[in-house]
Amino acid sequence: MIVRFFRKPLAVVSLLWVLTLLLLAIAAPLVAPYAPDQQDILHTLEGPSAAHPLGTGVLGLDVLSRLLYGGRITFLSTAISLVAYLIIGVPVGLLAGYRGGVTDKIILRVSDVAYAIPSTVIVLVVLAVRPNDETAAMIACGLMSAPSLARVVRSATISVREELFIRAAVVSGLTDSHILRKHVLPTVMGTVIVHAALFATVAIGLETGLGFLGVGTRQVTWGQLVAEASKNLGNQPWLLVPSGFVIISFILAFGLIGDGLRDAAAEGYSVRQLPTERPSNKTINTTTVVADAEFAVTEPLLAVHNLSVAFDIGGQPVTVVAGVSFALRQGEVVGVVGESGSGKSVTIAAILGLLRGTGRVTSGTLQFAGREYDLADTKSLVSLRGGRIALIGQDPMSALDPVFTVRYQLAEVIRAHTELRGAALETRVIELLQAVRMPDPELVAKSYPYQLSGGMAQRVSIAAALAGDPQVILADEPTTALDVTVQAEILDVLRELGKSVVLVTHDWAVLAELAERAVVLYAGQVVEQGGITDIVTNAKHPYTLALLRSNPYFAEPGKPLPAIAGVVLPPQDWPIGCHFADRCPIARSECCATGVPLIGAPGRSGITRCLYPDDVSKMKRIEVVP
Ligand code: ADP
Ligand code: MG
Which of 21, 107, 161, 351 could staple 96 via S-S, CB 3.0–4.6 A? Predict the structure, then answer.
């Protein structure tokens, strides 16, 4: 933003002008030819001369000197006002935006009230109570304008709060105050600076106005000079020129600086809007939630039991994940597959208590490292984030904060979860980058996210996930945003880590290479679960089979890729019976009568939510391309 600002000549000239005035004002005792109150009775109300470059006012007071000294008051008053404006406006706005809820509502109401009172009135009241106390007046002006800044900061905060890099910071287990200071504040800073510059013009206007009216400080100010000039307009019109020029150019310059900053910020604004789910107002069917039969996994490291999640859609709670259970052993990769909208991401988010919007867990427990957690109690899950269970998302670029270097972002997570500091911390940053097989880790550590390719960014976010030394990694489609060759490299990295991973994907090729077991989700339910080879060669649910057949990896060369007929029903339309029945080639009336439970096929390790698994076996087999 700074670089872009300096490309705007008008704004830069304005900045230089303001700085020059500021320096001159500060140096007034040194550079002013006379003291501000030094009279020269022989030369009153004169135009410019060698002795008085900008002429003299009443009693022969030197205009140049008085302008220089007057600038000090104007700058100081503006600064006081700005400080009051920022000290209240910024934290209050951040708090309202980040916290939301009741805090937000209270702050909004209070600011509405403050907003409704014209600040000039308050300033005049203050001056009536404390005559000539300009400091108090300027503080009042700053305070009265702070609510409008708070509102701006609040909306900027709300929009960054939903940014993936903020969520990534939350996932990494960083504290709220840390996230606010280090990630939210820098992002909203552009907005704040712009508004501060624009507010400064208001403050200067007010200050000079007070001087003009003679209600401000008794010391000489620019406003007083204008007042004096206007009284003597008939005798010496020149007098209005220096003070008028300074005030107008000063306000104009601040306005131009503000504009320049705003444009510079706008040009750099590349924050992506996240897709939001459009609520539908269709009527809702009641979906029966079938408790899944537990899939026999001995000594799981992590197990999710009977997870159900509901969102308010069209004002009604709608179940989008219905009784999902699965387990993960130490060192194992478990794949979670299913079409878009089947509930994969929601399931993953629920494990870390990170459901968005109206989402809430309506049932479900998490068994992790020998302890049981209630998934509805999101607070109890906070301690798991980052240090015990880490998350790798789909869009690596937006998981990184654009304003910090890679080194900084990794160090931040390491610091939050370990005792490493100083040189040891630096070493660890490089180690992590090496662990994800980053080429030239030293250089990358110094880079900003925009300097990285998508694949490098994903390596960094995997490194960040590893920074807290987690026992489990949840990876939600970690390679979807990357191109094919990079995908393969990232998957290699994941495989080599030897961690316990829950890997969400809709790519069977990835699963076949990486995962020991797979969980197939369809419309919020587990429809099949088992060993990966078993599933690929002998699917026991028609949906699994259809999913396999429609995958390019298993496609027959030269034949069109078979697609699954129909679409996934939206959650509010899920039937009581089998969720897949309307798309299933072997569905019978029994399938639609009641909820279908998960059943284990005798002698097999897998389970399926199909009443006719034997018929599935008779359907055309998938030939695995070696
Ligand atoms: P995927 O398997 O593609 O990751 P998701 O888990 O993202 O699917 O979504 C599962 C279901 O939950 C979808 O039907 C979606 O409509 C619903 N859903 C997800 N997030 C929200 C949300 N914030 N608000 C309302 N519904 C949502
Ligand atoms: Mg998803």
Answer: 107
